[in-house]
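Query structure, 81 tokens:
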């Protein structure tokens, strides 16, 4: 379970869903312990449909969010590195 956050590793080890809905990685998806980190650990890259299912939103909305994020990255000035 290398590469997992401590709390995510604990949930997997104890086979228990995360109750900390204040965590920025928490999702309402008990099949994968309510944890987006565990979802990624289990599946790796996911389709828009898989992400939409986990977040409880439409595939179109996931695509909108993806497009907006990619545009932000494209328009960000990284010259300070």
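Result returned for the query:
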């Amino acid at each position: 379970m290398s590469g997992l956050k401590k709390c995510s590793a604990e949930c997997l080890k104890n086979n228990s869903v995360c109750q900390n809905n204040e965590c920025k990685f928490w999702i309402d998806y008990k099949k994968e312990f309510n944890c987006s980190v565990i979802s990624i650990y289990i599946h790796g890259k996911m389709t828009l449909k898989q992400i939409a299912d986990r977040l409880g939103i439409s595939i179109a909305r996931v695509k909108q969010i993806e497009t907006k994020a990619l545009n932000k990255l494209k328009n960000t000035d990284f010259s300070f590195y």
